[in-house]
Design goal:
Layout lengths: L2 E9 L16 H10 L7 E4 L8 H6 L4 H5 L6 E3 L9 H9 L5 E2 L3 E3 L12 E6 L2 E9 L1 H4 L10 E3 L2 H15 L4 E7 L2 H10 L5 E4 L5 E7 L22 E7 L5 E10 L4 E11 L8 H18 L2 E5 L3 E2 L2 H4 L5 H13 L4 E5 L8 E2 L2 E4 H7 L6 E7 H11 L11 E4 L1 E2 L18 E2 L2 E2 L5 E7 H4 L15
Parallel strand pairs: 1-2, 2-3, 3-4, 7-9, 9-10, 10-12, 17-25
Antiparallel strand pairs: 1-13, 5-8, 6-7, 11-12, 13-14, 15-19, 16-18, 17-21, 20-25, 22-23, 23-24
Amino acid sequence: MDIKCLDILHFNDVYNIEEQKQEPVAGAARFTTALKEHGAGKGSIVLFSGDCLSPSYVSNATQGRHMPPIMNKMSIQCSLFGNHEFDFGLDVCQECADACNFPWINSNIYDAETNTLIGTDLSYKIIKNNDLKIGIIGLVEKEWVETIPCFTSSTLDVKDFCEVGRKLGKFLKIQQKCHLVIALTHMRWPNDRLLASSVPEIDLIFGGHDHDYAYEWIQLDEALLLLHDTDEPADNDKITLKRLILKSGSDYQMFSHLKVKYDKQNCKLLDIEIEKVIVDSHWEPDEEVQQVVKQYTEKLEKKLDRPLGRIEVQLDARFTSIRSHETNIGNLICDIVLTAVDADCVLFNSGSLRADRIIPAGMFTLRDLSNILPILDKLVVIEITGEQLIEALENSVSEYPKCEGRFPIIGGMRFAFNPSKPSGGRILTESVSVQNEPIIMDKKYRLCIKHYLYAGNDGFHVFPKCPVC
């Protein structure tokens, strides 16, 4: 056997460049030190699965332009566009991508008119390391592409990620003679699992979009290998029947270090060791990155430290909480809005809340609020019937148990839903109340929402039909 070893570092979904109050303190500077200690720039392959330009309080001022100087210090060899790369439009996205010293790839989002890739001309990247060729592709899901304000369904062609993965995987292995094919993805777990179970041409899946740290081994159906037209034998010695999906947390708090053993002589993946690296305060900040962070945050620091009030309990702003059930942070935000606007009730998408951490009890500052709500958007009060409000609530829970951003945070109303029912019929109508009164289907209510939702995003197609109060 001719055994080759690879070191691969992977991370995804990073937003806040500064350190946090609690462990793991994270921060881009300490993160860079940790990457370097694990071989970044010294032989390890560094891969990123998208989302860095936004949202954060700094990105509100820079439109994401602060990120390339920081990410350029991390020896990244390949990156995939995430949904938040497009928050400030395609032109800003491409400007930031051009400012990076590493390539961005996109394998399945096309301009419908020109049939060219969006954001880049690279559908794949080949990396050579330790006498091995590794093919990298980048796949995303249609679900989030449809929520991007700068895109419309008529201008984009989002090709099926399984079909593209199968086609590119075969091309890379057969024509380009790649030993391994890695898919960088930015999609939810169910779609990653579908990709892993359906496309044997892909060996490893490194995901983003979900912010939890987790990995799974997905079993391939052996019969599936026989369904694909291939120039090489699909035997168990050639292609393993398991596929790894890995997601590496978020926000510079952690990353993954994989040690991969590959039998080059027999073209066989032998073993993978996965280390979860926590970026806590024992890592010293990288001085160069620290200077860049200071450059962008120093002017904002004094404003952000302004106290807004004291909270007596910790606030749960973790994505896994706010996107799956009622939380005190969601209630607080909506109750504050209700005191400021003339409305009967409030409905926001939980994807608006971005802190993804526990906010400790004590003094609550503008920095805390900015980390929770970094995406600036106008509020709109609309006139909506009870029947239309039920329709909106149905959409808000339609993707449960996926941790989707459309899951609601509400104020001034109550409801319950049955997740075992099919989407569109989950809301228990008798449980819905507005201002402590049972909802009346033909009654008109004043509902406060974000302009993002009024535009019909996140599946809230009922809102554009409602008049503004």
